[in-house]
Structure formats: structure tokens, C-alpha cells
Design brief:
Chain lengths: ~110, ~120
């Protein structure tokens, strides 16, 4: 069971918007930035968001994120079938002195 | 172009050892924290370890502390993960990643190397 809690799965249809939540505590999200990754198993993970709400160059603005207190959210709008993947939040945890990943959320685009 | 290439994975018996390498190109590893992250087949991503640019600071996940050692050779632009006392639950694809652009984020990843622990 991960220190960062994500829903195991979400689904939506093409063109819709989906939100993925990530719940933590004051030892992690409450005091540190959150990053979000897209991962298709067997390939290299792809950084979508860093600094809780910043997009690296090349990441479309369909991907956005925010943080409030000890929780964070990733929004994906204008869903495409190519967005099907696993999505992970991460944050540093001061109690563990470790970078922690959420359990991951599988996005299905129906 | 930033590139990370992992190597050294393979089949090892429980209790055995293996050393993974991550050769970087397109940047100097001495300027960055470097991470190791793994994915157990069918499970999620899990952070393993990180090492500071100058090698002065290392951190480990509790699950590998005391068994794995991260190191770097800046002259070879290569990061290593020495894994000892390997367990079946260590079987995974191991990725190395470069820290940044933000703190504790990883914007560049290798393709991974598979470690199989089995008798």
C-alpha cells in the first residue's frame, strides 16, 4: 500500500476530461512538490508535470495539474486513445527520506 | 541529445549479486542527481535510490537499504547500482533517470534493464 493514494483506474471517452487524484500527507505532498508521469509498461516513463503544476517542454496543455494541502490532481482534457497508460504521482517524503510513487492509475479511453 | 542506457541486467539466483550500469550521453552526470526506479512485472513504479551529482549524498528505499549501493563515475559519465542479497521480490525492470527539470522530478529516462531473480 503506497504512501500516496491514487484511484486504481479511471475511464472516459475520447474528447472528455478526466481527473486523477493523489492523496498524501504533510511529510510529502503537504511540503514538497508533486510530479506526474505517464507510463506505458515496457517503455520509459514520461514526465508530464513537475513542480506540482509545471509542464516540461513538449507536453501539451491538455495535461494540467494542481496541488492543495496534502492532495494533488492531474487533469487530462480532450482525451485521446493514445492517452491510455498508467499515471503516477510522486513526491519526496521527509519521514522516509525517499521519493515515493503513488500506486498508479490506469486510464482507459473507451 | 540526452540519452541514458542501462545494462547489466540478467538472471541471478536468490541471494546473488548483480551490478547495473547507466551510461549517460548528452549531458554531464556530475551536474545532476541521478535516480534508479524499478517496476515489478504487473506492479507499479517504485523508486529505488538516488545519488547527488558529486556523489556526496545517497538515499535508498527501505526495501533495498543495506543491500543495494548506488555510485557514480563522473569520468565515465556512468551511474551504477550494486545489488546484493537479491530476493525474488527484487525482480523488475530497472530504470535510471536524470533529476530535473524540477526538484525530485525525472525528465529523462533510460529504456530499462530486466533483472530476473530465480532459482
Amino acid at each position: 500500500q503506497s504512501v500516496l493514494t491514487q484511484p486504481p483506474s479511471v475511464s472516459a471517452t475520447p474528447g472528455q476530461k478526466v481527473t486523477i487524484s493523489c492523496s498524501g500527507s504533510n511529510s510529502n505532498i503537504g511540503n514538497y512538490h508533486v510530479s506526474w508521469y505517464q507510463h506505458v509498461p515496457g517503455t520509459a516513463p514520461n514526465l508530464l508535470i513537475y513542480g506540482s503544476n509545471q509542464r516540461p517542454s513538449g507536453i501539451p496543455d491538455r495535461f494540467s495539474a494542481s496541488k492543495s494541502g496534502t492532495s494533488a490532481t492531474l487533469d487530462i482534457s480532450g482525451l485521446q486513445t493514445g492517452d491510455e497508460a498508467d499515471y503516477y504521482c510522486t513526491s519526496w517524503d521527509s519521514s522516509l527520506s525517499a521519493l515515493i510513487f503513488g500506486g498508479g492509475t490506469k486510464l482507459t479511453v473507451l | 541529445e540526452v540519452q541514458l542506457v542501462e545494462s547489466g541486467g540478467g538472471l541471478v539466483q536468490p541471494g546473488g549479486s548483480l551490478r547495473l550500469s547507466c551510461e549517460a550521453s548528452g549531458f554531464r552526470i556530475g551536474d545532476y542527481w541521478m535516480h534508479w526506479v524499478r517496476q515489478v512485472p504487473g506492479k507499479g513504479l517504485a523508486w529505488v535510490s538516488r545519488i547527488k551529482g558529486d556523489g556526496s549524498v545517497t538515499n535508498y528505499a527501505d526495501s533495498v537499504k543495506g543491500r543495494f549501493t548506488v555510485s557514480r563515475d563522473n569520468a565515465k559519465n556512468t551511474v551504477y547500482l550494486q545489488m546484493t542479497s537479491l530476493r525474488v521480490e527484487d525482480m523488475a525492470i530497472y530504470y535510471c533517470a536524470r533529476d530535473g527539470p524540477g526538484p525530485e522530478s525525472a525528465g529523462a529516462w533510460g529504456q530499462g534493464t530486466l533483472v530476473t531473480v530465480s532459482s
